[in-house]
Amino acid sequence: MRIMVIGLGYVGLVAVAGLAKAGYQITGVDINIKKINSLNNGKIDIYEPGLKEVIDEARLNQRISFKNIAEIKNIDCGIVIICVGTPSRPDGAADLSQVEYTIEWIKERTINSLTIIMKSTVPPGTGELLYKKYLAGFSYKINYISNPEFLREGQALKDWFYPDRIVIGGNNNKAIEEVSALYDSLNARIVKLDITSAELIKYAANAFLATKISFINEIACLCDCLGADINSVATGIGLDNRIGEGFLKAGIGYGGSCFPKDVRALNFLSTINGHNFELLRATIIVNSRQRLLPVQKLRSYLGNLVNKNIAVLGLTFKPGTDDIRESPSLDIIRLLLDEGANVSIYDPIRKNLNINLFRKDQIRFGKNILDTVKGTEAVVVATEWDQFIDTNWSEIKIVMNEPFLIVDGRNCLDPCIINNCGFIYSGIGRAKAHER
Ligand SMILES: NC(=O)C1=CN([C@@H]2O[C@H](COP(=O)(O)OP(=O)(O)OC[C@H]3O[C@@H](n4cnc5c(N)ncnc54)[C@H](O)[C@@H]3O)[C@@H](O)[C@H]2O)C=CC1
Ligand SMILES: O=C(O)[C@H]1O[C@H](OP(=O)(O)OP(=O)(O)OC[C@H]2O[C@@H](n3ccc(=O)[nH]c3=O)[C@H](O)[C@@H]2O)[C@H](O)[C@@H](O)[C@@H]1O
């Protein structure tokens, strides 16, 4: 069967790879000509471990082709999967313009009945609205299925091939079964339901995980007040099966292309539907506050930050990705610059900021960890890359200046080792960690 995947970001490319591996013939389509050219030259513009290998294999087996949208005159596939972006609008709502443009584009090129699968994250109620606005009564029968994606960047292929569940929402049983069959090779648990409930599962899952992170961050602050260690507390809580160990890592909070925008969109949706989702608002407030903590900690040890030299290790919103969208690290750098500090930066994958976030003369990119921390009074660890955890901190201290402060924004370093190297260690909620 031939399938068209529209929008080749993380989700689109992983869908292309996963479905090609399952034996389907895939046409990947994007509006970005540069992206298509580079895909056709065997290059992938995102860092996702293992993805290139699966795409290369599919290309070798002639299962995939990549095309710019302008090259498509007619859609001759039975299934079209939409994976375009749904970024935040300034008011927090999801911007659905890419999705709506794509549906109109599909309609103009439809020559047979087909099924649209919405993999982009769209607010609950969107599918029903889109169906009524664009598809109901159209000259060709177009089914609409909500099939939200739950992959995590950095382990996207693992999440595709071994999903916890697959959610398929629709108003036509035949179409639900057709989409369900796409995943036959995965042996996954499939949840079949209506469109709006499927859409809500996606938002509720992201909002719940984000809330779990903000909850543990509140407990971390309490640890700092009471003199307890959050990592030990989180382990103790997480061992309760009803709670689970995941998403209990305290630190500078969640970032990325999805949690922040999806939590904001759910909050917006709740408000305009007459529900004041107080818990979600608290999740957002706590998350914004966590990003300020490293700067507060630096101030408490260094005083005024004007002309202080500070290294920030890590730019990406988490390890295993090159994605810096809504990364807490960027806010920390911005705050440090506002305070007049000199900031040097290092990230193992992200070697530049090709967006106008900061003036070039405001920051310095180090060649490696040692080069970045040279002459600094303090280091902020903003992303828990293995390279930072495994580094020889005694060597780092030699090139730094007093007071040799490490602010561990991800609680990923061993405070005993750091203290033994002669540093002051300051984590998030780790007041007692060095006394173990
Ligand atoms: N990044 C992630 O880990 C996950 C993202 N999602 C959701 O999936 C959706 C896509 O996310 P990403 O892949 O991160 O987005 P992205 O922003 O990285 O990629 C979107 C792609 O769509 C293309 N595009 C935009 N308009 C188009 C059009 N009219 N025709 C063809 N291509 C078009 C863009 O050029 C871009 O390549 C979003 O709704 C997101 O919330 C869901 C689960 C995980
Ligand atoms: O909708 C999405 O796009 C995706 O969003 C997240 O995936 P992702 O953003 O790739 O990354 P996560 O591993 O979930 O981490 C998100 C953020 O939370 C932070 N985090 C995570 C876990 C934790 O315990 N503490 C914590 O601060 C991470 O550092 C990161 O900044 C979800 O985990 C995916 O299921 C979902 O599909």
Automatic annotation (TrEMBL):
Keywords for this protein = NAD, Oxidoreductase
- What SUPFAM superfamilies does the annotation carry? 6-phosphogluconate dehydrogenase C-terminal domain-like, NAD(P)-binding Rossmann-fold domains, UDP-glucose/GDP-mannose dehydrogenase C-terminal domain
At which positions is substrate bound?
150-153, 202, 247-251, 255, 318
Alphabetically, which GO biological process terms does the record hold? Answer: polysaccharide biosynthetic process; UDP-glucuronate biosynthetic process
Report TM segments: none
Catalytic residues (UniProt): 258
Q: Which InterPro entries match?
A: 6-PGluconate_DH-like_C_sf, NAD(P)-bd_dom_sf, UDP-Glc/GDP-Man, UDP-Glc/GDP-Man_DH_C, UDP-Glc/GDP-Man_DH_C_sf, UDP-Glc/GDP-Man_DH_dimer, UDP-Glc/GDP-Man_DH_N, UDPglc_DH_bac
For this protein, what is the EC number? Answer: 1.1.1.22
Q: What is this protein called?
A: UDP-glucose 6-dehydrogenase
Name the species this protein comes from. Answer: Desulfocucumis palustris
Q: Output the lineage of the source organism.
A: Bacteria, Bacillati, Bacillota, Clostridia, Eubacteriales
